[in-house]
Write a structure and sequence with these properties.
This is Phenylacetate-CoA oxygenase subunit PaaA. It comes from Marinospirillum insulare. The protein has 13 helices and four strands. By secondary structure, the chain is mostly helical. The strands form two sheets. Strands 1-2 form a two-stranded antiparallel sheet. α4 (about 80-105) packs antiparallel against α7, α6 packs parallel to α8 and α6 (about 135-155) runs antiparallel to α10 (about 240-255). The model is unreliable at about 1-10 (pLDDT under 50). The structure holds Phenylacetyl coenzyme A (FAQ). The site of Phenylacetyl coenzyme A has 29 residues, from α2, α6 and α9.
């Protein structure tokens, strides 16, 4: 079906017959699973969609460091502290790969970051929730990185070459993140006090639904999905990925000895999947509008980091310019 569709610049998709020769060649290439590379011709709307998605993804990685950064100074042991610091540094690296992949499309990193600071660019809704206790570090690793992996494993096959290649390395690192998170929770459930076990359940109660929202609106309410699937930017729909995540996570939840805050969650023998309750989409859209528990704090923190780092960037640039001038003088 998707081989028959191509972009129009609006949310509508058109058939192969409606396309210009350039658009048709592009779509045939995508359908043949040939990667699109930066210098190849591409429809403007394909480029825009990728800049939007990759910049949002990069912003998510960078803003995503903040809820975890909150716990570095309070990690319970040296080993946990080192693991958490390594994980947070990995997220910074993911942000950098992704901004670089976005720049191959001709977009400006500074401009996209400025849009984030002005509240014009989105980042994953999940990072607008607070991290209130140590077991949240476990739940973030297990649920948030777990959800991110389900989405990103599929993105390794996305049609744009630089994005797909960035995903390969990112997925490897996210797997370590997910395991270290799960291990934190397992240790607390196996060796912890009753209070610590209750803490784990509390983290799951708070982060379960926001983790499910990471996959985006239901397919029928997702304005970008149809076109993004036609271009093979997205390879599976929001609802398909959400279901995959639930199916793989519930057995892990049971192994922990915990429960989900969803009375409707149950195995369905007929479909071979877990049924689950209705997501509170009004909460999701409120968070997207900037009204989540931590939206303002997250953006203020990112702005402060950029402002306070200005002198470092200026000094590094002045040094690089000087060095280049010296090389030119010597030549
Ligand atoms: N939060 O039409 P759709 C991580 C927006 S990385 C905020 O379905 P699309 C690692 C969407 O952008 C997590 N906004 O959109 C980590 C669109 O906005 P528009 C990030 C959301 O793009 C772990 C509008 O709603 N991962 O966690 C969300 O086709 C731990 C309509 O939605 C990625 O970004 C949301 N949850 O599908 C780091 C993966 N959902 O058009 C630190 C790449 C939707 O107004 C610590 N992205 N929106 O600009 C994707 O796969 C897709 O962009 C989706 C959304 C699936 C997120």
């Amino acid at each position: 079906m998707y081989a028959q569709l191509v972009e129009t610049g609006s949310k509508r998709v058109k058939t192969l017959e409606e396309m210009s020769p350039e658009e048709r060649t592009f779509q045939e290439k995508v359908d043949a699973e040939i990667k699109i590379e930066p210098k190849n011709w591409m429809p403007d709307a394909y480029r825009k969609t990728l800049v939007r998605q990759i910049s949002q993804h990069a912003h998510s990685e960078v803003v995503g460091m903040l809820p975890e950064g909150n716990w570095v100074t309070r990690a319970p042991t040296l080993k946990r502290k080192l693991q958490l610091m390594a994980k947070i540094q990995d997220e910074a690296g993911h942000g950098l790969y992704l901004y670089s992949a976005m720049e191959t499309l001709g977009a400006s990193r500074d401009e996209e970051i400025e849009k984030l600071h002005q509240g014009k660019a989105k980042y994953s809704s999940i990072f607008n929730y607070p991290t209130l206790n140590w077991s949240d570090m476990g739940a973030v690793g297990w649920l948030v990185d777990g959800a991110a992996i389900v989405n990103q494993v599929v993105l390794q096959r996305t049609s744009y070459g630089p994005y797909s290649r960035a995903m390969v390395r990112i997925c490897k690192e996210e797997s370590f993140h997910q395991r270290q998170g799960y291990q934190i929770l397992l240790d607390m459930m196996r060796e912890g006090t009753e209070e610590q076990k209750a803490m784990v359940q509390d983290s799951i109660n708070r982060l379960w639904w926001p983790a499910l929202m990471m996959f985006g609106p239901s397919d029928e309410d997702s304005p970008n999905s149809q076109q993004s699937m036609a271009w093979k930017i997205k390879r599976k729909s929001n609802d398909e990925l959400r279901q995959m995540f639930i199916d793989q996570t519930v057995p892990q939840l049971e192994f922990l000895g915990c429960t989900a805050p969803d009375p409707d969650l149950k195995w369905n023998e007929e479909t071979g999947h877990y049924d689950f309750g209705e997501i509170d989409w009004s909460e999701f859209y409120e968070v997207l509008k900037g009204n989540g528990p931590c939206n303002r704090e997250r953006i203020a923190t990112r702005k402060k980091a950029i402002d306070e780092g200005t002198w470092v960037r200026q000094a590094a640039k002045a040094y690089a310019d000087k060095k280049q001038q010296k090389q030119r003088d010597a030549a």
